[in-house]
Specification:
Layout lengths: L1 E2 L2 H11 L14 H4 L6 E11 L6 E14 L14 E8 L18 E11 L23 E11 L2 E10 L34 H5 L2 E3 L2 E9 L6 H5 L19 E10 L9 E16 L4 E13 L4 H4 L3 H9 L5 H4 L1 H5 L2 H5 L11 H7 L4 E4 L32 E3 L10 E3 L12 H10 L9 E2 L36
Antiparallel strand pairs: 1-16, 2-3, 3-10, 4-5, 4-11, 5-6, 6-7, 8-9, 9-10, 11-12, 11-13, 14-15
Length: 490
């Protein structure tokens, strides 16, 4: 099934020639990080957004990091939390630190880094009720026994600025003890669907948003916004015929999200591309004592993430742990071969000439950071299709450029007269069907003229075409965390 869709194809090829980067939708991507869930980066998101709630609309680069894969909503005690011993960092590179046609291999370095550290505080340790002492009506009230506080620091040009000194993490969705997350304010019901206006957010989420110096931040438990039939991939069922119904491997699970709105004034000109990736780090020395553990020494990177599916689906097992430990500056030398000659292309049985010399895929994944064109209008946003969910924005398509969902660049000529994808690989939104987009890219040939594009605008690779709960179309965008008393897997 091959057709040439010139508008989609040319635009996607333009993106492939531009700087991109990141890490996989790596829920279980490498052996060592799988043993460290609080530091395990599952997904990174980055897109241009706009707040229209005031007379003067404000444009942001919205960035988000998800960690702690496969949080079971029905667990007890509910101890899924950010780790006080982990440094969570979201990096943004701008200007000459990203590849261009005239400088294809620069030293990729963050222009801005945002560092998140957490501190857990108990109101009462003389109880078995670790997280909750009763029904929580508001963040950090007397009934929220365990509250996580966090600090956000901006590092730029060797200077560190504290942006948020004492952010608060809302409680996890425990059901009856956190009723405001759930439909009809009832802790026995399904979690609330996403909304289109700030006023519609549940009270925990709304009061968990903090603002300072033009920034907005949220950190807390959310639904896992990544959807795909990952099970079929690792069952080696690449025909995705393992069952009679869609199988969303992440359906019904939660993660912990950090979401940050970065004002455009912090990024310089909007006539440029920004590269976004995230890392998690631990200190090099831990001393175990009978009552407390003491951690010291330099921060050592243990995980990183940017583009979906690179480490998970392309990098060989022998290099997966190495990938998590090395900086993005190593990608061209250490990991480019996995993009130019992907094993996945051989497994999928495509023509031999599409299994090697894949400069088009290398353009997407090497170096591995998400690329966002800052000159575009705000990205179209996904809502949901469940009862009570806010619909998708008009023109949103889960396949981005392959579904006709495009944005216009005001500074890149590219292919298609400056037309870019509305979602990944032009950044990544909540709702982008990254597995389908990635597989279509592997099956296509973006090196040829005319381009050889697999499928059409309605192509469905894995039969999972939407998330199991509607996203919010306002900050923090990620969907409400699932309730353990009423949720479903797959």
């Amino acid at each position: 099934m091959k057709t040439n869709h010139h508008t989609f194809a040319a635009t996607f090829a333009a993106l492939a020639l531009l700087p991109l980067a990141g890490h996989a939708s790596s829920h279980m991507d490498a052996p060592l990080i799988t043993l460290d869930p609080a530091a395990n980066t599952t997904d990174v998101y980055a897109f241009v957004s706009q707040d229209n709630s005031s007379e003067t609309p404000k444009k942001y680069l919205t960035v988000a990091l998800s960690v702690y894969p496969h949080e079971e909503p029905g667990v007890g005690p509910n101890k899924y939390n950010f780790d006080d011993s982990v440094l969570y960092t979201i990096n943004v590179a701008t200007g000459t630190s990203l590849p261009t046609a005239t400088n294809p291999a620069p030293k990729v370095a963050p222009t801005l880094s945002y560092q998140f550290t957490f501190r857990s505080v108990y109101k009462n340790k003389n109880t078995i009720a670790q997280s909750y002492l009763g029904v929580v009506d508001a963040i950090d009230d007397a009934q929220q026994n365990l509250t996580q506080h966090y600090t956000v620091k901006k590092v730029s040009g060797g200077r560190t600025t504290v942006l948020f000194a004492d952010g608060l993490v809302p409680p996890n969705n425990q059901g009856r003890l956190t009723p405001h997350y759930n439909q009809s304010e009832n802790g026995d019901n399904l979690a609330k669907e996403g909304v289109a206006a700030n006023a519609g957010l549940d009270t925990y989420t709304k009061t968990g948003i903090f603002s300072n110096l033009g920034y907005q931040v949220f950190a807390g438990q959310r639904d896992d916004g990544f959807y795909a039939d990952v099970q079929s991939i690792f069952d080696l069922d690449f025909s995705f015929t393992g069952g009679d119904k869609p199988f969303d491997s992440q359906g019904g699970f939660n993660v912990h999200n950090i979401v940050l709105n970065i004002p455009f004034s912090e990024l310089g000109s909007d006539q440029q591309v920004a590269g976004v990736w995230a890392t998690t780090s631990r200190q090099s020395t831990t001393v175990l004592r009978s009552t407390t553990d003491t951690k010291s020494g330099l921060w050592v990177q243990v995980g990183r993430q940017g583009n979906p599916l690179f480490c998970e689906a392309l990098v060989a097992t022998q290099d997966k742990d190495l990938y998590n430990r090395l900086p993005v500056t190593s990608d061209s030398l250490q990991f480019k071969k996995y993009a130019t000659s992907p094993e996945l292309a051989t497994i999928l049985g495509i023509a031999p000439d599409r299994r090697v010399n894949r400069s088009d895929l290398a353009g997407i994944f090497i170096p591995d950071v998400l690329k966002v064109d800052l000159s575009t209008g705000p990205a179209r946003l996904a809502g949901g299709s469940n009862a009570g969910a806010t619909p998708d924005d008009l023109g949103f398509n889960r396949l981005g450029i392959f579904g006709g969902d495009t944005l216009h660049s005001n500074f890149q000529a590219g292919f298609g007269g400056g037309t870019l994808s509305g979602g990944w690989p032009n950044g990544r939104r909540f709702g982008d069907d990254v597995v389908d987009i990635a597989v279509i890219a592997v099956l296509s040939d973006l090196r040829t003229n005319p381009l050889q594009i697999f499928g059409d605008a309605n192509t469905d690779i894995d039969h999972v075409t939407r998330n199991d709960i509607g996203y919010n179309k306002v900050f923090p965008y990620a969907a409400t965390p699932h309730n353990g008393r009423d949720h479903s897997h797959n």
